[in-house]
Design goal:
The chain is mainly α and 595 residues long. The protein has one domain: Growth Hormone, Chain: A. Helices cover 69% and strands 1% of the residues. The protein contains 26 helices and two strands. A hairpin with a 6-residue loop joins strand 1 and strand 2. Helix 4 packs antiparallel against helix 5, helix 6 packs antiparallel against helix 13 and helix 21 runs antiparallel to helix 23. The longest helix is centred in the C-terminal third of the chain and has 33 residues. It is globular. The relative contact order is 0.14. It holds the Pfam family MFS_1. It is a multi-pass membrane protein. It is found in: Membrane. One of its GO terms (molecular function) is transmembrane transporter activity.
Length: 595
């Protein structure tokens, strides 16, 4: 009797092993898809109860990803506070200072320089990320190290051409975001996705808070802290020669440290990492050896044993082999295409917002007395425009501002003022994502929350230019100030940041849900990164051109109202995506978020 029970147990174990070998990797127990199936059966309420931060797997792996993305955004945030002033150091060929319109075009050019390499490399890197021979770690390591070198080079640029070259190199390595999202999805699976998806936006908001403050503190330190430097010393000469080198050096060193941590502390998360063993024998030699008729005995595999028991029917064997092969599924579904289109529009206006905001904040204020005195001193002028005494802000001749749209000028903010305004976005976004996103996702559902967030952007973009019309406690050309102005700034930025904080993680989850297969996540994220790069190219070109036209015509809000139009189109695309998802296509219950 005991022998019979042992025999039954052995047969059951052998059958389970055979079934597991025939099951695709992404469906096996322990994989993210297997967890998805189990989780869906338990229900969404059970998921929220069990998927806590404390039970999150591989926290150290996620910590490295969060740290790397934090410094990536801290570097870009600090850059936003001083890049306009760094570009202003580079004189035009005639020796003059670039105008506000020229600076806006140069900033747009830098955004395009970052996006162009992403447009062409993202699909290639997406395929490499999904390849077991390359995987996630190698691509991430290369990107982090290249980014660090780029920031160190940016610290000592002496011309606009050098700055553009460094930004091209940053764009070459900026495909890491698709890799990071894929890694987070590998680790979290479906069960922890609603929490793990917040890690990247949280790191973004932390970086968006710390970065501007860091840039404002470290920019031009000799002038900001004159008592801290000895006149004539080597350090003083270095920081006077390159006044914005210090924040760039900090960013570069931080990214290289993240690369070192990735090299020595990060483990590969590719689902097929265990399928390929390292060997000095080439794969073609192994296959050749298997095909040669060798003599002797060998242990039959389970599949070979079953084939013998079934009387050697070759037809059945071939059909089993066909079933064992993974089915090629096209990723180009209607839902994925609509998701990419909606996300591309979203990135077009959300991505350019910080740069356009920094341009607007640093644009000189309009001073009617300055322009009237300039016109009176040159009554015979025949130019199309009259120019302010500082040679930066220009308006047409006989210009008279009037409501509701004809007004010009910015707020004349300095790097520390810009840093404070940008830090407001980071703090608000961090609190909203951590405290309210999971709660609102359960109430509205993911798609509805995504659509409602998109509706906020057009209102905020339309209102921002009117900051220039708020009464200030200081006269121009001094930076604008006053409690009423900062209340207006805080309210508008809070609304924009709230919308961005909710739409960013929602868009990532919707994109993951649109992927037809777990093993194609890297490819889908790579394609999404290319779409984002294309949007990042088109967005700055349009806003840079419209901002220059608006400033020359004395209408500072042209670029902002153009962006508001793109945001309206994005909301329409989001509504169409929501309608498409409700049409009969298969959706994951956790992504739908609705009963």
């Amino acid at each position: 009797m005991l022998e019979w029970e042992l025999f039954r147990a052995a047969v059951t174990k052998l059958k389970m092993r055979n079934d597991e070998e025939k099951t695709p990797i992404y469906k096996r127990p322990g994989s993210s898809s297997s967890q998805l199936d189990t989780t869906n059966k338990l229900g969404e309420d059970d998921d929220e109860a069990t998927a806590s931060w404390a039970s999150m797997p591989k926290k150290w792996q996620l910590a490295i990803i969060v740290l790397s993305w934090f410094w990536e955004n801290a570097a870009m945030g600090s850059r936003g506070t001083y890049i306009l002033f760094q570009l202003r150091m580079f004189k035009l060929p005639d020796g003059s200072v670039p105008s506000a319109a020229s600076l806006a075009f140069q900033v747009s050019l830098l955004s395009v320089a970052i996006a162009i390499p992403q447009l062409f490399l993202s699909p290639i890197l997406g395929v490499l990320v999904d390849s077991p021979r390359v995987g996630r770690k190698k691509v991430l390591l290369m990107s982090l190290f290249t980014t660090g070198i780029s920031w160190l080079g940016l610290a000592f640029c002496n011309s606009l051409l050098g700055v553009v070259a460094c930004h091209l190199l940053i764009g070459l390595a900026n495909n890491k975001i698709a890799v990071m999202r894929t890694i987070v999805r590998d680790i979290s699976g479906e069960k922890f996705e609603s929490r793990a998806i917040l890690l990247m936006p949280t790191a973004f908001n932390l970086g968006s808070t710390v970065g501007p403050l860091l840039g404002g503190i470290l920019s031009d330190p000799v002038r900001t802290y004159p008592n801290a430097f000895v006149p004539g010393s080597s350090l003083t000469w270095l920081l006077e020669r390159w006044p914005y080198a210090l924040p760039n050096m900090v960013n570069g060193i931080a990214m290289i440290i993240c690369a070192i941590l990735t090299a020595f502390q990060f483990e590969e998360t590719h689902p097929g990492k265990g399928q390929r063993s390292l060997s000095v024998i080439p794969g073609w030699a192994k296959n050749l050896g298997r095909r040669l008729p060798w003599g002797g005995y060998e242990k039959l595999s389970t599949e070979e044993h079953e084939r013998i028991e079934m009387a050697g029917l070759r037809e059945d064997d071939s059909s089993k082999a066909d079933l064992a092969k993974p089915v090629a599924v096209s990723i180009w579904t209607r839902r994925l295409i609509m998701t990419l289109f909606s996300n591309g529009l979203m990135i077009m206006h959300v991505g350019i917002f910080p740069a356009l905001l920094a341009i607007f904040l640093s644009t000189p204020r309009y001073d009617p007395t300055e322009f009237s005195s300039a016109a009176s001193t040159s009554p015979n002028a025949t130019d199309e425009q009259s120019t302010a005494a500082n040679g930066v802000l220009s308006v047409p001749l006989n210009y008279h501002p009037h409501a509701p749209f004809v007004f010009t000028g910015g707020l004349s903010f300095k790097p520390n003022n810009i840093a404070f305004a940008l830090a407001i976005r980071g703090v608000i976004g961090l609190l909203l994502q951590l405290l309210f996103f999971p709660y609102l996702k359960r109430i509205f559902g993911l798609l509805r929350l995504y659509l409602y967030s998109l509706l906020v952007f057009p209102v905020t973009y339309f209102a921002i230019p009117y900051w220039a019309t708020v009464p200030s406690a200081t006269p121009p050309p001094l930076p604008a100030s006053g409690a009423l102005l900062w209340i207006f700034i805080a309210i508008t930025l809070s609304l924009q940041t709230a919308a961005r904080s909710f739409v960013t993680p929602a868009s990532r989850m919707i994109l993951n849900a649109a992927s037809p297969d777990e093993t194609s996540l890297g490819t889908v994220n790579g394609i999404a990164q290319s779409v984002a790069a294309a949007a990042t190219i088109v967005g700055p070109l349009i806003t840079g051109w419209t901002n220059g036209v608006g400033l020359r015509q004395g209408i500072v809000g042209v670029a902002w109202w153009t962006m508001s139009g793109f945001a309206i189109l994005n909301a329409v695309a989001g509504a169409a995506l929501m309608y498409e998802s409700r049409r009969g296509e298969k959706r994951k219950p956790s992504i739908q978020g609705e009963p």
